[in-house]
Batch of 3 targets.
Target 1
Amino acid sequence: MDTYFAPNVQKNIESRKGKERQTTINEAYKKELREKACMTITDWMYDAAIPFNIVNYSSFKKMLDLVGQYGIGLKGPSYHEVRVPFLKKAVDSVANDYIKSCETEWAKYGCSLMADGWTDKRHMTLINFLVNSPKGSIFIKSVDASDYAKTGEKIFQLLDRFVERVGEATVVQVVTDSVSNNVLAGKLLEAKRSHLYWTPCDAHCVNLILEDIGELPDFKATLKKVMSVNTYIYVRPDMVNMLSASGCERNWSVFEQIHSKKRKQRLNDLVFVKYNRALKLWYDARDKIDLISLTDIDDSNEWLMGKMDGESDNEEDELIFEGDDLTWDVVARASGAEEPEYCTRGKTLHP
C-alpha cells in the first residue's frame, strides 16, 4: 500500500530544501536591496541636512508605502510641481479637511481669536492670527501690521476685520498682548461687539512679571552674567541661527520672509500648510504628550543639538580605554590642551 499511497520522502525533502534555498536567496536579496534604498534615503537626508527624527513622522511611513505600491519607475515630483500644483492641493486639503472640522466646533462651542505680534529686525510689525477652540488651534494668516500698530484705532480695525472673517457669532474672545494700543483696541472691540471679550495674553503678562523680578537686587547680578552669554551668542550669526531653529528662542524667520519676498501668496500658502499640519499633529497627539513635561520636547535633531542620541553631554568624562579609569579630561589638563575661555566684547581678561 505504501508503494501507491506513501509520498516519495526523498523527493519531498529535496523539494523542501530547494524552496528553503530560494527563500534564503530572496531574503538576502531583499535585505541587500533594502540597505541600498535606506542608504540612498539617508544620503539625501545628509545632503539636505534634514533632521533624523523625520523618520518617525507618520507621513514618512505613508510615503514609503505608496512608493512601494507604485513599484519600479516612479518619477518624483518636479521643482515646479512641489512649488505650484501640489502646494495648492495641500492648501485645499488643509482647508477642506482640518479647518472645516474646526469650524464645526466653533459653531458649537465658540472660539478665541489670537493675535501674536512682534517686531522684526527691519522694524516691521508682524502679527500672526490664529484661532483656538476645543478642537485645537489653526493658523489663519501672517499680516504686516506696520501701518496698523501706531494707534489703537488701527489695531481695532485689523482685529475687527479678522473677527468678521472668522465669524462674529463664533468668536467669543480676542487675545493679544497688553501694550497700550492693544488695550485700547480691545476696549473698542468690546464696545462694538457686546458678546465678545478682550483678554491680555498670559505669556506676555508673565514676561512682564519676570522682567520686574529681574530688576530685584538678588537676581540682577545673575541676569547680568546671563546677558554676557547672550552677547557672546548674538555676535555669532551661525550660533544665533542654530539656537533659533532649535527652539531656544522664537524663530520668526519664515514669517519675515513672507513679507520680504515678491511671491507672498506662495509663501503664505506654504506657511499655512506647514503650521496647520503641525498644529493638527500636535492636537492629535494631545493624549500622548504632556504639555507641561519638558521630557516630551523634541531634542533629537542631531543637526542642531550637536550630538547623537545616547551620547554623553560631558565628553571629557569618557574613558580613553575600556576597563581603565583614565579619562579625556585628565589628558586635557595634563597636556594643557583644554579649550580656552571665550569672552564677550564687554568683558576684559585680567592676568
Target 2
Amino acid sequence: MAIMLYLLLLMTLLSAGYAEQRTASLPPEKRGPLLEVISKCFSETGISAETLMKLKESKLSDDKNFNKFLYCIFMNTGYSDKDGVVKADKIVTLFPESDKKAINKVVDECNNSKGTDTAEVLFGFYKCFINKSPVRVIL
C-alpha cells in the first residue's frame, strides 16, 4: 500500500512539468489498474526515483531502466503491440472525449519511432508524445 501511495504522489509530480499542456484526470476506472501496473513495473525494472523525477522537469532520461519501465507499462496495459506500435484505440480511452481526435493524430505522428529494440521504440514514442500532445493525463 505504501508503494502505491508513493507512486501516486510521484506520478502527480511528474505531470506537473508540462505547463503548456492542458491537464485531464485519468478516468477513475483506469486509475487502479494503471497504478497496479506502474507499481509492478517500478519493482521489476529497478528504475530509480531520481530517473523518474527528471520527468517532472521535462527532462527525459536515456537510462535503459527507464526504457524498460516504459516497455513494461505499455506491454502490461496492452497499449502497445510486441513491436512497439502503440494502439491508438486503447490510448484514447485515457483522455476526455473532446481530445480523442487530437490524441489519435499525435499517436499516428509518434508511432514512427525507430530503435534497436521495442523498449527503445516505445521510449521514442513517449518522448514524441509528451512533446506533441495538447493534453496530459494526471492520476
Target 3
Amino acid sequence: MERESDTKGQVHDRLPYVLSEARGQSTANFLTPGVDIIYLHQHASSTDRNARQRVVGAILPNFEAWLGRKHGSLTFRLTQVLTGHGCFGEYLCRIGREVTPRCHHCGEVRDSAQHTLEECPAWEPERHILVSYVGRDLSPPAVIAAMLEDSEAWRAVVSFCEVVMCKKEAAERDRERADPSRRRRHQGGADQRSDRSIQ
C-alpha cells in the first residue's frame, strides 16, 4: 500500500512533464487524458482554494489511472461539477450573482456541486440512473474511480452532468429573465455559455 505522501511526491514529479506536454498545444488537442488535469486545475482558478481542493482531492487518489485512461473526455458540464464552478448557489453567491448560496431547486441552505450530485431531491431520477453505474458512494474520489474503471460509468457521469446542469442553467436563465438586474455583464453583449464538449 502506497503512502499518501509517496503518491503526492509522484504527482509532483510528474506534473512538470504533463505541463510541458500541454504547452503549445491547440485547445482541441489540449484535453487528452495526460493533460486534461491541467485544464481542470486552471478551471478551478488559482483564487478558489475550495475548487482546487475538490479537483485535486478527487483525482489524486487515482492520478496514474487518470493519466493512463483509455476512455472518456472532459465536457464543459463535467468540468463544472468536478470544480464546483457552475450554476451552484454557493459559487453564484461567491461571484456576486446570488445573494445567498441556497438551492433554488429544493430550498437547502447551501447548493454546491456535491449537493447537486449527492443530495438534491430535484435530481433524484437522474441520480438513480447514475448510482446504477457508479454505486451509492458519490464522493468525488469514488465517482472518479468508477469513471476510470468503466467507460459506461464515465458516460453515466457525463450524462448526469449534462442533463442536470442544462436544467440548472435553464432555471438560472429564467431567474435572470424575471429579474434583469441579475443578468451577467458580457463583452460584446453575447451570452458566452458553452454547450460544447471540450475535446
